[in-house]
Design a protein that fits this description.
Elements (H helix, E strand, L loop, with lengths): L2 H30 E5 L3 E3 L4 E7 L14 E15 L2 E14 L3 E5 L3 E2 L2 E2 L3 E6 L12 E7 L10 E9 L3 E6 L7 E16 L2 E14 L3 E5 L3 E6 L12 E6 L3 E5 L12 E2 L1 E6 L7 E3 L4 E10 L17 E5 L3 E7 L2 E14 L3 E5 L2 E7 L4 E7 L2 E6 L2 H8 L26 H28 L8 H15 L3 H9 L8 H7 L3 H16 L4 H10 L5
Parallel strand pairs: 2-9, 19-27, 21-29
Antiparallel strand pairs: 1-3, 3-5, 4-5, 6-9, 7-8, 10-11, 11-14, 12-16, 13-14, 15-18, 16-17, 20-22, 22-25, 23-25, 24-25, 26-29, 27-28
Helix pairs in contact: 4-5, 6-7, 7-8
Length: 535
């Protein structure tokens, strides 16, 4: 063998040794850490399990997964084997991942200690639409009572979760969408249903959804994620297997407010306007308060969507609106909003008090046209009060200096004739004592400063005013302040009797707020500051 041939053979042998060493190193690297998905493709809303196997005890770095997946659960399992008399330890990590987007997701190598996994890929398909096929363990169903609502019209949206396995835990998302107002209605309803020969438990949840603007609006798919007690994928999880499913999306074609619709826009399936005018007395006196209660109740609207209740000016009377009460209930799967307001009506003069006709215009969704709910007019007779009658009809009695007329023979004597002189003396003494007491009291009032810390009027009105302001009750505050001067028929008269400009301004603000139904917050603070001083 020549020297040249020997060199060639040596090079070939060296190359073979190098290839063998590289293969052994590669095999060792792949044996050190291995990664795989339990499925090659999934749908949006489903989870997939990523398995990582390694001989090292160091934890894998899963941070690279967070941009493409939501990590919902993790589990670790350790296996020990005896191979050719030597103990081999293998650690297995299982991670439940939910894709964040559709398409082919490329998973970069994951670092485990000093090693890295091979790159992986996962195909993610769109979320399965509609109810799952017969035999699925868990699926969702959604429906809307209309897909062509008006702006602000209530859409009854129902979500039903069907499951035929034992759920350990779960989370059902609420519906959402751009430009949509979503309100949950009532509590979950639980029942069972037979589907395809299989018994399913059902959780039904209801929502009221309304659109802020006309045009196309999408109610996004609803997702469910949970764990089942047995079966399903992901056998590495000791606390059950993960399960998830999703619903279909629903597109709404939202119609604008009709041109012929009355304002404010009030779309309802039914609306009832009522009051207690029929229960009010047919006749009252001047100054006696009448309490009129008006209620608007609508099906398909919340209380906040109903227009504010008001009462027009009434000739010959003052009107003071009380604070409004609002209530929204769920009746037969629909929102029922109720708005109630009380009005204090104070007649100011004798005659006929006419409650005018009151109405509320709204859009009837059942007939798809405008409608008007009307409260009829009511007339009430107002007579003069007792104090007015006394002022008009009373006349002075005969002068006390005149001798009393002799009683008629048939009249019984009021006082026995033998006692009238002592009685007259006693009355004269009492009269003189009254004059003297009045004189002394007047001098005391001029010589001594008035004690303004606890005058008698304060005992009557100040606690009542403080209590009313604490509750932000403007009607009660008005009643308390009128105690300052019982002769004042209204706040206007009381304001004219006061000298403090801040107190007069506070009374004017109170009167405006009562009439217009403004917020009580600013008026309460103004009254509290102004009447911290005794008038």
């Amino acid at each position: 063998m020549s020297s040249g041939e020997g060199k060639v053979i040596a090079v070939r042998w060296l190359a073979m040794v190098l290839l063998l060493v590289c293969g052994m190193l590669s095999a060792r690297a792949s044996a050190e850490v291995r990664a795989w998905f339990d499925r090659s493709s999934v749908s949006m809303g489903e989870t997939v399990t990523l398995n990582i196997e390694s001989a090292t005890t160091e934890q894998p770095d899963f941070s690279a997964l967070e941009k493409d997946f939501r990590i919902s659960a993790r589990s670790t399992n350790t296996q020990v084997q005896i191979i050719n008399g030597a103990m081999a330890r293998t650690n297995l990590w299982a991670v439940a991942l939910e894709p964040l987007h559709e398409g082919v997701i490329a998973v970069a190598p994951i670092t485990v200690g000093n090693d890295q996994t091979a790159p992986l890929s996962l195909a993610v398909k769109p979320m399965a639409r509609g109810s799952a096929a017969a035999g699925d363990d868990v699926f969702l169903e959604v429906e809307a009572d209309t897909t062509t609502p008006y702006v602000q019209q209530q859409v009854a949206y129902t979500v039903r979760l069907f499951y035929a396995v034992s759920l350990l835990e779960g989370n059902l998302d609420d519906p959402s969408g751009t430009g949509l107002q979503v309100r949950r209605m009532g509590e979950d309803v639980n029942y069972s249903r037979q589907i395809g020969g299989r018994r399913y438990n059902v959780v039904e949840r209801r929502y009221a959804i309304s659109a802020d603007h006309s045009g196309s609006a999408t109610i996004n798919a609803v997702s469910f994620r949970g764990r089942v007690a047995a079966g399903g994928r992901g056998g590495f999880f000791s606390q059950g297997s993960p399960v998830s499913t999703g619903s279909e999306t629903i597109t709404l074609d939202v119609r604008p407010v009709p041109a012929s619709a009355p304002q404010p826009w009030t779309p309802a399936q039914a609306l009832r306007l009522s009051d207690n005018a029929a229960q009010l007395p047919a006749q009252v006196k001047v100054g006696d308060a009448l309490e009129l209660t008006v209620t608007a109740e609508a099906t398909g609207l919340s209380a906040e969507q109903l227009p504010e209740l008001s009462l027009p000016a009434i000739a010959g009377a003052e009107v003071y609106p009380d604070q409004e009460t609002r209530d929204t209930a769920i009746v037969d799967g629909k929102l029922v909003g109720k708005r109630t307001r009380k009005f204090a009506i104070l007649p100011q003069q004798p005659g006929t008090l006419n409650l005018p006709e009151r109405s509320l215009s709204w859009w009837n969704l059942a007939t798809d046209q405008a409608q008007r709910s009307i409260l009829p007019a009511r007339s009430i007779t107002v007579v003069a009060g007792a104090a007015t009658k006394v002022a008009e009809t009373s006349t002075p009695r005969a002068d006390s200096s005149q001798a009393p007329a002799a009683p008629e023979a048939h009249d019984a004597p009021i006082v026995s004739p033998g006692y009238w002189r002592p009685l007259a003396v006693l009355l004269a003494v009492l009269w003189l004592a009254t004059l003297l007491a009045g004189y002394l009291w007047a001098r005391r009032g001029r010589s001594e400063p008035r004690d303004e810390t606890d005058p008698e009027p304060v005992k009557l009105w100040r606690p009542a005013l403080a209590h009313a302001l604490t509750r932000s009750d403007l009607s009660a505050a008005r009643r308390a302040l009128l105690r300052l001067n019982p002769k004042s028929g209204d706040l206007h008269d009381l304001a004219e009797a006061l000298e403090d400009p801040d107190q007069r301004a506070a009374l004017q603000a109170l009167e405006r707020a009562l009439y217009r139904g403004d917020s009580a917050e600013g008026v309460v603070e103004q009254l509290r500051n102004a009447f911290a001083r005794t008038p």
